[in-house]
Amino acid sequence: xxxxxxxxxxxxxxxxxxxxxxxxxxxxxxxxxxxxxxxxxxxxxxxxxxxxxxxxxxxxxxxxxxxxxxxxxxxxxxxxxxxxxxxxxxxxxxxxxxxxxxxxxxxxxxxxxxxxxxxxxxxxxxxxxxxxxxxxxxxxxxxxxxxxxxxxxxxxxxxxxxxxxxxxxxxxxxxxxxxxxxxxxxxxxxxxxxxxxxxxxxxxxxxxxxxxxxxxxxxxxxxxxxxxxxxxxxxxxxxxxxxxxxxxxxxxxxxxxxxxxxxxxxxxxxxxxxxxxxxxxxxxxxxxxxxxxxxxxxxxxxxxxxxxxxxxxxxxxxxxxxxxxxxxxxxxxxxxxxxxxxxxxxxxxxxxxxxxxxxxxxxxxxxxxxxxxxxxxxxxxxxxxxxxxxxxxxxxxxxxxxxxxxxxxxxxxxxxxxxxxxxxxxxxxxxxxxxxxxxxxxxxxxxx
Length: 448
Fold this sequence. Notes:
Blueprint: H1 10-32, H2 35-42, H3 46-54, H4 60-76, H5 78-97, H6 102-130, H7 136-160, H8 166-187, H9 194-201, H10 205-213, H11 215-223, H12 225-258, H13 264-289, H14 295-315, H15 321-336, H16 339-349, H17 356-385, H18 387-408, H19 417-425, H20 429-434
Helix pairs in contact: 1-6, 1-7, 1-8, 1-12, 3-17, 4-5, 4-6, 4-17, 5-6, 5-8, 6-7, 6-16, 6-17, 7-13, 7-16, 10-11, 12-13, 12-16, 12-17, 12-18, 13-15, 14-15, 14-18, 17-18
């Protein structure tokens, strides 16, 4: 195996593949800003609205796509997924743009969600594998940056097109179709991930490759203790945080309404502020410092800011717009240097190449399923109990995410992926699966 494989595609590959995150976030925001309009147009209940949210790119739809796409990405390569997933995505957003009834809209959201779920683990894996070791956080941060720009533009478009009502929402879905088509065209010239290609090429024949990157490799994900530990820690970090962020991403206009902001334009402009701060914090915080300072400390700062933001919103709502502005700025900064950015980095680092995308697919499935369960009931829960009760629940979830990350954050900064693999597994796993061993090689049982 070629341990020293280097990226030859550079920032062009990073940016074009990272656009999966713009498209994912953009579709979630297109849904978030249009749910009330669809509800009024089709005369559907709050539970039906919850169903749309739960099966979208924000939750179950993405979970299903990730569960399918992750293992396929490890078996057939990263390029196999990111070459075709956008075609499915384009079909979904186009159906949404021209939806004429609830069934058509639900179908569009499911198709879009499946495409997003398949594409995101592939993009995070590809970027991390192609990035230089000492700039991996910076490259992976590009995906987080794109994920932040998506809502920033989405909410800005929603505010700008608000006078058009539902037609404006349909135009936003058309804009996502155009962006996806351009990104799909750019991606056609990108090569396969160098690390995946090198390890797959080093396996002797199709049968051995199937064993390494197929069923046997997938089985190793759930039988090796080092993998199970990483799965639990990362699901804990990302799962508890994303259950909150998932509701904020798609239902935040309703939260603002419960806090007294009834104007849809004002709600969307508050979200523009949130995501503008997220974009700035991602670039000037995560991308600038995650390769240079303690990642545990930077993660903890972001997580603590998230808890502070929701505490401000819950306990000082009566202060009106100043409270909402402070919340928007604090939550935006927290999201820029918080759980998702570090999850996308650590999820690529802590698993060997034959497991990497499968692990991300499985974790994305679990996390988005949890988000979907709460999304189904969230509109009804918010209407029935109010902001304080819901806010305290979200603060509790964020606190758990902070505790897990502060204790179990890994020390992988500056190390190459092969170095991390040998340190954690005691061997290069693809070699270990294809070469008979005379003596057992050590498997480090250190936490992370």
